[in-house]
Design a protein that fits this description.
globular; alpha+beta; binds zinc ion; 27 helices; about 700 residues
């Protein structure tokens, strides 16, 4: 789920992105910031087990997360300008500071100069204020000038070119019937609120959020010059239109079944599905290549869209599009727009109290748009060839553990094991950064046009995406930038991908206690590898084809094991009264459990085989588990926890620790927990 631009953070994922970056390890990297640069620490500490953040009053067998992280949480309250704060945030902070140094250095040339100019334009808040609405003036005028519904496809294509996902999303995805080539993909998109449920739920809290959302739209329309009564009517029309869209959308849990979003058709069949939206006109305006086959992710949504463009007045559709242009641009518009937008999307929805410092938002945006232009310098400063070799070795150790784990699984037949191993052998390991750096020479960037720079960068990405249609899938492409504190498995390419940005303290440090390196970075590697064999990943083969390679009885046994994990996590509560959705989070929870298992197996078979000595009073196995937990230390505001529970396939950090360890006999043994301890589940779940 690669990070949309600031302001589109909560937009529904495009399938193409979902398929290539389906399983990022950690919660989304929004541009929530913290402290001022002057008190930025060097790299987060990393000596080994961090004994000074333990909560020794807590029995590790009662609440291991609290034991490992209680001190950290007490010492690190969520700063006002963040929605959550964690070890990930600390490392992000560190990486963004390095990028800032790169962007502010004067000697840059080529693409690096371009990134520096992009950053400088973003930082120029006086210039942004002076430009007013001029940068989006042509877009707003184009929307205004459309009189005829027949021209709607041209307008939608225009907005899509600049990253505004109006009404639907059009892009490229791997053709999952052969996994060799890319085809066009049309998917549901275009809501302003974070999820369809926000439009459909009738409880007071959600109804209150909708009222505030309408008030925001009205405010933004007013700021853009609409008379008050028109702004009020238009804002209501936007909510009504988006509610119709939301009603027809497939929900997040159903979308997790990859087959549910695969419907290949010709453009004539697509046209028959929504006869009142001219797809050939859209494709021509989008400058798409020929479209012999299109995947239509949610046919029912396109049928509803057809009704929507037929029944709604052009005035309502125009209001919807004006809103989405403002929504996508708000952070680079004058302060009145940015503040109003922040007030709802951050303060209300996530509990974030204050805006992060501008430099952090601008560095994050530069990284999002031109990440490989600064990525090379970032890698040179942070990720040595030795670190790459060492972490690759850890990947190989963990793959070997998975070979053993599959081989020993008592519930799998030999044929299914053989197929699983074949898939495992085909996994491609990618560490740090791309082999070939992206060439941004065709993107025009100037030091005085922040929004224009972003639009041209988005257009560059749009062209790259559409050029993939009908072409062989480029397996070397990364969907995260080198400085990203995250990792992903790509099911349609069968690759595990670890940006240099995450292979840093506190997750990994060369020469550190191996128990802690395997507990932290090793578990992340195991997590991504397990995604290839979670309830989604297992439906793809080693080439990335959607193909059932499981003997029926083994598939059934798998589902029973997965259900155990779904039920386990469905019993967990966040923000006081919200239950985690065990089906939404099933893939991530399976990966958290598998990752911990594979990493402890690899550690005990490798560097842990000879390690017996206690360090800081802890055995090697204990240090492994503390490292596993401490990489997840963090806390969130209740609003952010609620949002996460409704939209994020990752569980709250507490359960990303206590969920797996309470399923592991290795943990029970390491801490000598009694059989009836809270961290020992009587009927432990295990997939991998
Ligand atoms: Zn994951």
């Amino acid at each position: 789920m690669r990070r949309q631009i600031f302001g589109l953070t909560f937009a529904a994922l495009p399938l193409a992105v979902a398929l290539s970056a389906e399983a990022d390890l950690l919660v989304r990297t929004t541009s929530d910031g913290v402290r001022t640069p002057s008190d930025v620490a060097p790299a987060p500490r990393s000596a080994g087990v961090e004994v000074d953040v333990l909560d020794r009053k807590m029995d590790p067998c009662t609440d291991f997360y609290q034991f490992a992280c209680g001190g950290w949480i007490a010492q690190n309250p969520v700063p006002p300008d963040r929605q959550s704060f964690s070890r990930v945030s600390q490392l992000q902070e560190h990486n963004l500071t390095i990028l800032r140094g790169i962007l502010e250095a004067s000697a840059a040339d080529g693409d690096r100069r371009k990134a520096a100019d992009y950053y400088a334009a973003c930082m120029d808040d006086a210039g942004i204020e002076a430009h007013g609405l001029t940068p989006i003036g042509p877009d707003l005028a184009t929307i205004d000038e459309i009189l005829n519904p027949d021209d709607l496809p041209v307008l939608v294509a225009h907005l899509h070119a600049y990253g505004v996902p109006a009404l639907f999303r059009f892009g490229a995805q791997t053709d999952l019937t052969d996994a060799a080539n890319a085809i066009a993909n049309v998917d549901q998109a275009g809501l302003g609120l974070p999820d369809r449920e926000y439009y459909l739920k009738t409880d007071d809290r959600t109804a209150g959020l909708r009222a505030k959302y309408v008030a925001l739209i009205q405010t933004m329309f007013g700021l853009a010059g609409e008379p008050a009564d028109q702004a009020a009517a238009d804002a209501k029309a936007v909510l009504a239109l988006e509610t119709t869209m939301a009603t027809a959308m497939l929900d997040r849990v159903k979308r997790r079944d990859p087959a549910s979003t695969q419907h290949r058709m010709t453009i004539n069949e697509l046209q028959a599905l929504s006869p009142n939206f001219n797809w050939r006109k859209y494709a021509a305006a989008a400058e798409a290549p020929p479209l012999p086959t299109i995947n239509v992710a949610v046919p029912a949504y396109l049928r509803a869209l057809d009704t929507l463009v037929t029944l709604n007045s052009m005035n309502d559709l125009k209001a919807y599009m004006r809103w989405h242009v403002l929504h996508a641009s708000a952070d680079l518009l004058p302060k009145a727009f940015a503040d109003a937008h922040f007030d709802f999307f951050n303060r209300t929805l996530t509990g974030q109290q204050a805006e992060p410092p501008r430099w952090r938002r601008c560095v994050a945006d530069t990284d999002a748009q031109l990440g490989e232009a600064v990525g090379k310098a970032f890698v040179e400063q942070t990720f040595s060839p030795q670190a790459k070799a060492d972490t690759l070795q850890m990947v190989h150790d963990i793959e070997q553990a998975m070979r053993q784990d599959v081989g020993a699984a008592p519930w799998m037949s030999d044929d299914t094991k053989k197929a699983a191993i074949a898939k495992l052998e085909a996994v491609v390991d990618r560490i740090g950064y791309p082999d070939e750096w992206r060439d941004y020479s065709s993107v025009r960037v100037t030091r005085d046009d922040a929004l224009g720079n972003r639009q041209r960068s988005l257009l560059f990405n749009r062209k790259r995406t559409l050029a993939k249609i009908g072409q062989p899938v480029d397996r070397s492409e990364w969907s995260m930038t080198p400085a990203t504190v995250n990792a992903y498995y790509s099911p349609d390419r069968n690759t595990i991908n670890f940006p240099a940005g995450i292979l840093q303290p506190p997750f990994y440090r060369a020469g550190r206690d191996a128990a802690v390196n395997y507990g932290a970075a090793g578990a992340i590697i195991g997590h991504e590898l397990t995604h290839g064999f979670d309830d989604q990943g297992r439906k793809f083969d080693g080439q990335g084809k959607l193909r059932d390679w499981w003997a029926p009885a083994d598939g059934k046994a798998y589902d029973e094991r997965a259900s155990c994990i779904a039920d386990q996590y469905s019993a967990y509560t966040v923000a006081g009264d919200i239950k985690i959705d065990g089906r939404l989070t099933l893939g991530e929870n399976t990966a958290d459990n598998g990752g911990a298992r594979l990493a402890v197996m690899a550690y005990l078979a490798g560097p842990g085989a000879k390690a017996k000595d206690k360090v800081d009073g802890f055995t090697p196995e204990q240090r492994f588990f503390i490292g596993f937990a401490q990489k997840n230390c963090g806390s969130s505001r209740p609003e952010a926890e609620r949002l996460q529970a409704q939209t994020d396939p990752h569980s709250a950090t507490r359960y990303r620790v206590n969920g797996p360890v309470s399923n592991m006999p290795e943990f029970q043994k390491a801490f000598s927990c009694k059989a009836n301890a809270p961290m020992v589940r009587a009927s432990a779940c295990r997939v991998w």
